[in-house]
Amino acid sequence: MIKFLPLLLLILYGLAMYRFSVWRTSKELDRNSTELADATLISLTQKMADALDVPRIRVHIYEIAPVNGLAASDGRIFITRGFYDRYRAGQVTAAEIASVIAHELGHVALGHSRKRMIDFSGQNAIRIALATVLNRILPGIGALAAGALTTLLAARLSREDEYEADAYAAALLHRSGIGTAPQKALLDKLAHLTGSNGRSGPAAWLMSHPETADRIAAIETLEQRWRIG
Questions:
Q1: ∠ at Cα 203 (197, 204), nearest 5°?
Q2: CA triplet 59, 61, 63: central angle to 5 degrees?
Q3: What detail does the entry give on cofactor binding (predicted)?
């Protein structure tokens, strides 16, 4: 038992750091967000609420410029001011914003926040343990190699979560009558909206999100199953 104590302490340290990060993010969201009051978007979120058999879906606007949507660890759904401004400017449709909300609902429903807490702690422990071992073999660069390996692991796990959230969103949009066309259209627009080329710099396997073409193909595979079924 004693020989596993350092590993246990690393995991507990990772959990504590994750909890602190969640607390800090929650406070930031509390200070800089307001509940969405757009009638058109609310009508679409109500369709999704009806499909889920819940009274309503609350969405908040997070007052930052980048184009993004996010699900907080407490289950709250946010779209950024930058995203909302693109919608108001006519660059994004209401149904496309609804697809983002559905995607973030998927992260909540599938428990990805809790999963990330476990992943974060485990990855932190793996990184430090690998660094300890690799530093003996590769003095001076072992820590860098360990960091690179755990980054690859984290990226892969994140991409799996994104595929799952996409699938949840597609099913919800289909069931609520909004359809998956806006979801696919928005994915096509994301590179332009975020100012990237769809890869955000590094090779696809280093990305936290899958490539756009792969995400759209996965949604179309679901559509084909629904047609056959």
A1: 80
A2: 160
A3: Binds 1 zinc ion per subunit.
| 84-97: pLDDT as tens digits | 999 999 999 999 99
What is the spatial distance between Cα 16 and Cα 189, in angstroms, rounded to a whole number? Answer: 38
Query: What DSSP string describes 110-156?
Result: TTHHHHHHHHHHHHHHHHHHHHHHHHHHSTTTHHHHHHHHHHHHHHH
68 pLDDT more than 70: yes
pTM of the model: 0.74
Q: What is the largest CA-CA distance in the chain?
A: 61
Q: Give residue limits of the domains in the chain.
A: 2-228
Sheet strands side by side (includes 69-71): 33-35, 59-62, 77-80, 69-71
DSSP characters over 170-220: HHHHHHTTS-SHHHHHHHHHHHHHHTS-SS-SS-GGG-SS--HHHHHHHHH
In order of 35, 71, 94, 97, 125, the CA distances from 42 in angstroms are 11, 17, 10, 11, 43
Pairing type for strands 59-62 and 33-35 reads antiparallel
Radius of gyration over every alpha carbon of the chain, rounded to an integer in angstroms: 20
Residue position matching structure tokens 């992943």: 119
Judging by beta carbons within 10 Å of its beta carbon (0-12, 13-18, 19+), is residue 226 exposed, middle or buried? exposed
